[in-house]
Structure formats: structure tokens, C-alpha cells
Write a structure and sequence with these properties.
Layout (H helix, E strand, L loop, with lengths): L7 H25 L4 H25 L8 H23 L4 H24 L8 H24 L4 H32 L7 H31 L9
């Protein structure tokens, strides 16, 4: 049976609301021609909420009807943590270096998890699945490397060249996996490799079929109970 997400509607409302409020506030500030730090914080707040909502919806797309869904749940948790830290830094005006390092690292890990969740939507043939497994490890390793550079304040041309090379690899993985998904669909068949969205739709249909079958049986029993009984013949 399908497991509907309770966060999908709040995330949608948060995305739509933040975009509308941000647009209205931006137009108001442009008309008033006032761009103080307060106005900038208001606009950045709507941007953070919109981005967090969009990332949360992206995690929800990778949710399957069965299983623990650890990756989508972890992504949602990290997105929420990063959004709280960013909003806190905007409005509390925390000048702590440790706070902002933690905030940046949380944001990097959140975006990385969302990235891997989106790549997991691709359904690959057996001979291609290693690409996603190794690719996700490289992507998470890339994120940890960035966090290490930020926390340790590592600097130097060698480390930045390595980061640039790793960025190219991450970009290549991001482009290759959807292509392999398309190839797998063409070779194996669209019915065999169903995406999480298709799996949830099929699970919802199966759930509805079961519910209708139970309702039909209930109506059959009710009909049988209302049927007049034939009188027993007398000798």
C-alpha cells in the first residue's frame, strides 16, 4: 500500500507562498526605492524558504511506497536544519565563525542529499546500477571534502585543482545517469523499471482496487441479508 507524504502539501504551500510574498515584497521595495539590510533580509528569507521547499519536494519525489526511505528522510531533515540555521543567521545576526561554518556545511550536505535523491529516481538496468552506487559515493565524498576545506580553512592551488577536477566528475555523473536511465527503459521496457512516482501511482491504484473489492463484498453481504427468505415447505 502507498505511504502518502504528509509534508508534500505544506512544502507546496511554502514554495508558492514564499514566491508570491517575495515577488510582492520585491516590487514594493523597488517602488519605494529602499534597500536597507532589513529589506534585504526579508527578500533572502523568502528565497531560503522557497529553496528549502523546493529541495523538500525533490526529496519527496524519490520516496518509494515501500521501504524505510532513509535517503529522502535524511534529505528532508538536512534541508530543514540548513533552512533553520540560515534564517537564524539572517535575523539573529550571529557573527560566530563556527556557526557560519556549521551552516554552510549543513547546506552543502542538504543539497548533496537532494542531488543523490534526484539521481535515485532513475531506474537503471542491472549492468548500470554500479554507476549510481559509485556515483553517489563520489558525490558525498565531494561534499565532505568541501566541508573539510571550510572547517579546516585549507587553502592552496593543489586542493582547488583537485576540487575542480572532482566537480567535473560530479557533473559527468549527473549527466550520465539520466542517459543510462533512458537506455535502460528502451532495452528492458518501461513496465519493468518503474520510477518512484510510477511505483507510488501503481500502489495507490492497487490500494483503491482492494478498497473497492472490500466494498463490493460488503454490499454483496448486505444484499444477501435483505433477500427475502423462501418459506420452508410443510408436509
Amino acid at each position: 500500500m502507498s505511504n502518502p507524504s504528509r509534508l508534500k502539501k505544506p512544502l507546496l504551500y511554502g514554495l508558492i507562498g514564499s514566491v508570491l510574498i517575495g515577488a510582492a515584497v520585491g516590487i514594493l521595495f523597488v517602488i519605494r526605492n529602499t534597500w536597507t539590510w532589513f529589506e534585504l533580509r526579508v527578500v533572502l528569507t523568502t528565497v531560503v524558504i522557497a529553496g528549502a521547499s523546493l529541495c523538500g519536494l525533490a526529496c519527496d519525489l524519490s520516496r518509494t511506497p515501500k521501504g524505510m526511505n532513509l535517503m529522502p528522510k535524511t534529505g528532508l531533515s538536512l534541508v530543514g536544519l540548513a533552512a533553520i540555521l540560515l534564517l537564524g543567521g539572517l535575523w539573529i545576526e550571529n557573527d560566530s565563525e563556527l556557526y557560519w561554518k556549521t551552516t554552510i556545511c549543513a547546506s552543502i550536505l542538504a543539497v548533496t542529499t537532494v542531488h543523490v535523491c534526484l539521481l535515485s529516481i532513475a531506474r537503471l538496468a542491472n549492468r548500470f546500477r554500479w554507476v549510481y552506487v559509485i556515483g553517489s559515493q563520489i558525490i558525498f565524498g565531494y561534499a565532505m571534502l568541501l566541508c573539510g576545506v571550510i572547517i579546516g580553512e585549507i587553502d592552496g592551488p593543489d586542493i582547488w585543482r583537485f576540487i575542480a577536477a572532482l566537480s567535473i566528475i560530479v557533473m559527468a555523473i549527473t549527466l550520465v545517469i539520466p542517459i543510462l536511465h533512458r537506455i535502460s527503459k528502451m532495452e528492458v521496457g518501461s513496465g519493468t523499471l518503474a520510477s518512484p512516482i510510477e511505483q507510488r501511482n501503481m500502489a495507490s491504484i492497487d490500494e483503491e482496487i482492494v478498497r473497492l473489492q472490500e466494498r463490493i463484498l460488503e454490499l454483496e453481504r448486505l444484499k444477501e441479508s435483505l433477500r427475502p427468505k423462501e418459506p420452508t415447505p410443510t408436509l
